[in-house]
Amino acid sequence: MSAASRVTDIGPPHYEKFLPPVIKRNYGKWLYHEILRPGVMVHVAESGDRLFTVRAATPRLLHISSIRDFAALADKYCAGHLRFTSRNNVEFLTEVEANIDPLVADLTKLGYPVGGTGNAISNVVHTQGWVHCHSAATDASGVVKAVMDELYPHFVNMDMPAKLRIAFACCLNMCGAVHCSDIAILGVHTRAPKIEHQNLPKMCEIPSVVASCPTGAIRPATVDGAQSVEIIEEQCMYCGNCFTVCPAIKINNAKTDGISIWVGGKVSNARTEPKFSKLAVPFLPNNPPRWPEVVEWVKKLVTLYATNARKHERMGEWIERIGWPKFFQLAEIQFTKYHIDDFRHAGETFKRSAQLRHG
Amino acid sequence: MSEKKRATPLLDQLESGPWPSFVKELKKTEETPVMQDFLGQLERSYEEHIGHWKHGGIVGVMGYGGGVIGRYSDLGEEFPNIAHFHTIRVNQPAGWFYTSDALRQICDIWEKHGSGVTNMHGSTGDIILLGTTTPELEPTFKELTDAGFDLGGSGSDMRTPSCCCGQARCEWACYDTMGACYDFTQSYQDELHRPAFPYKYKMKFAGCPNDCVASVARADMSFIGTWRDDIKVNQDEVRACAAKGTDIQKEVCDLCPTKCMKWDGTQLDIDNSNCVKCMHCINVMPKALRPGDDRGATIMIGAKAPIVGGALLSSVFIPFIKMEPPYEDIKELISRIWDLWAEYGKNRERVGEFIQRVGLGTFLEQIGLEPVPEMIAAPRSNPYIFFGGEIAEAE
Q1: Which of A132, B6, B230, B256 could form a disulfide with B40 if both were Cys (CB 3.0 to 4.6 A apart)?
Q2: Which residues of B, range 269-298, sit inside 8 Å of A by Cβ?
Q3: Per the CB < 8 Å rule, is B99 touching A67?
């Protein structure tokens, strides 16, 4: 192929090509919206025009035949217009109110539930896991499927005190906004990586490997005659950054990798400022195909929140109101040294007042 | 090899239940050799509790350094049809709007050149085409560009920017997020396709402080829509909300972070000078309240996930700016940030970590931005001030 015939750096297509006429007419002139029922919204423009949206969950991992099914539904009901959301939902956009019921029926028949609006548990933001990632401590799609099979009623109903956002990441790289979610499910490694000393000099630059460690736990060493590195195990916090820069340092471990659960994060500014998720359950085993321990804990935390939080209160706001000691007590989580931060700026999370509930 | 179907008893258990099943998705073309091996290797991971993908290698399309993630199986002899199984990131249209024809075009290309498996979408926002071989990369790219699509970012480059649906469908959008996202993406095609930074640089455009694209958690540069004037109030609709059962005092006034609202049973009064634009009252009563007319964005800087030096939320950089094309003042600022970070940032150091290392004060000085109190939650409480000999000697 000649370089001259090659087109590069054109960027994405202009979005305007894909907007339905009702959006082009009312761009920037929307007045208000209402959630008509779980998964169905209407947006009303200043002109009086109405746009109906039907939102359905996808598993994120989609085969092209399913995308073609969505395209066919968009042709049938929405003059060919649809979009996806930041949480892996698909949204069908139509001006015709009468199309909603048959569209919902078709989506349901295809196995894509309609919901995820308002105070529901929306779809889960998640990563690749064992399906396609090199650093995964667990699978992503499998855990999400197992968890959402149980939480399904909260996707198709809006029965939470406020929004409840669940996210999943299969290692500490945290692709996805896992660290600011109401409930974050996170794959963790719990052992220092194993070094393949014979491969390391061939595959990796030793200075980059040494520099990659945030705790300075890696230093150059000669092992069995090979120029390699050694890891001070007690200084390792299993972040896997060395593995990312050097494939000869193996972080994945079938026997000791597992899952942790974090709670109380949010990204919106509503009422309280955005906040990180904090550690609730330090470790649960990898137990495929349905990870029953993880499912049980997530269900328990959701139920606890739904039972105790006030209307409009996100998970983190509820916990801050009642205090972390009360949360651990209610959740029946054994508080351990693992819950106490010991990385940089750790002292910022220590309790530095005598304002305690003793009741 | 024999064409006998592989048994996947563990994965099969994830076909049942009410939630959409990724296993069912993979089984849509179960009979193909590629999918047999893909399912076979995944089943092996489920048996052994460990992944079987190796590190990405250096693969890509000619002239680009990003957009393709090399992926190789460590069981390549046993699963030869997925021994090479690379990812292609395709830059999504702003707001993830499509027509059915555009989607079918992508499906046709991916049916011809790859596994047929996708993510709609990846965490950063791209269309993810999951699984192909090195010789297919260039032909796939050719057909994608013929169809008007281009690759997204990967590695130490500007990652694919993303945005909420903004003014296309949301009354709360305080600027044109899709317009801005498209403009910045087009302006920085070189930075997007050819990694030349210390590490990744993400931009996310959220139309209001609800931040539906999680920019405050994930973007090195977060553009969060906001406004400066008064919340627009429709008192009739406020009363209608009350009549329909919303307890305005309890659900709105009492939950306002600055307690700047008063409700006397018929009239909602807002002390707008104390409103911090949190969106709560507007979220509760979308028919009654709207953001004001003097709209723009707060630009925040430095968010990232934990690797390497710990997770950070973005912090305020420009408290308020009008978001109007061609965004020259913002682009000028970005080029100053990139110049400084490219020169002094360490390998794999995100801009947020860089700012923590050199100090926000120094960073601002270097890029020529005045410090303002909106940038901090509180002034310093430690007395270790780097005066640097700048205090003049007394007469």
Answers
A1: B6
A2: 276-280, 283-284, 286-287, 290
A3: no
What three-state secondary structure class fits A151? helix
Tens digits of residue pLDDT in B93-126 = 999 999 999 999 999 999 999 999 999 999 999 9
Please state, in angstroms and rounded to a whole number, the distance separating the CA atoms of residues A330 and A315.
Answer: 14
Which stretch of DSSP H or E encloses residue A259?
strand A258-263
Averaged pLDDT, B345-360: 96
Interface of A with B in 204-223 (CB under 8 A): 208, 211-212, 214
Q: Identity (one letter) of the amino acid at A270?
A: A
Give the model's confidence band at B2: pLDDT under 50 very low, under 70 low, under 90 confident, else very high.
very low
The model's pLDDT over A263-288, given as tens digits with 9 standing for 90+, comes to 999 999 999 999 999 999 999 999 99
Interface contact flag, A27 B190, Cβ < 8 Å: no
- Facing B305 at nearest CB: one of A7, A63, A173: A173
Of the residues A87, A123, A125, A132, the best mutation for testing chain B's interface (the one with the most B CB atoms within 10 Å of its CB) is A132
Asked if B265 reaches chain A (Cβ–Cβ under 8 Å), the answer is no
Closest CA to B294 of B380, B227, B224, B214: B227
The whole-chain average pLDDT of chain A stands at: 96
For chain A, what is the largest distance between any 2 Cα atoms, rounded to a whole number of angstroms?
78
CB contact under 8 A, B278 and A34: no
Using a CB-CB cut-off of 8 Å, the residues of chain A touching B185 are: 11-12
Please answer yes or no on whether A30 and B170 come within 8 Å at the CB atom: yes
A331: DSSP letter: H
* Shortest CA gap B390–chain A (Å): 29
pLDDT score at A345: 83
A169: chain B residues, CB-CB within 8 Å: 305
Instruction: Please answer yes or no on whether A60 and B119 come within 8 Å at the CB atom.
Output: yes
pLDDT of residue A175: 85
Residues of chain A with Cβ-Cβ distance to B251 below 8 Å are 311-312
Residues in chain B, overall count: 395
Angle at A202 between CA A200 and CA A208, to 5 degrees: 60
Question: What ipTM was predicted for this assembly?
Answer: 0.96
Residue whose structure tokens are 């035949």 = A65
Triad B38, B44, B49: Cα angle to 5°: 125
Cβ-based neighbours of A70, under 8 Å, separated by 6 or more: A82, A90, B100, B103
B/e letters for A45-73, b = 16+ CB within 10 Å, e = fewer, are beeebbbbbbbbbbbbbbbbebbbbbbeb
Residues in chain A: 359
Q: Which token pair is B67?
A: 């957009």
Handedness of CA B344, B348, B350, B355 (dihedral sign): negative
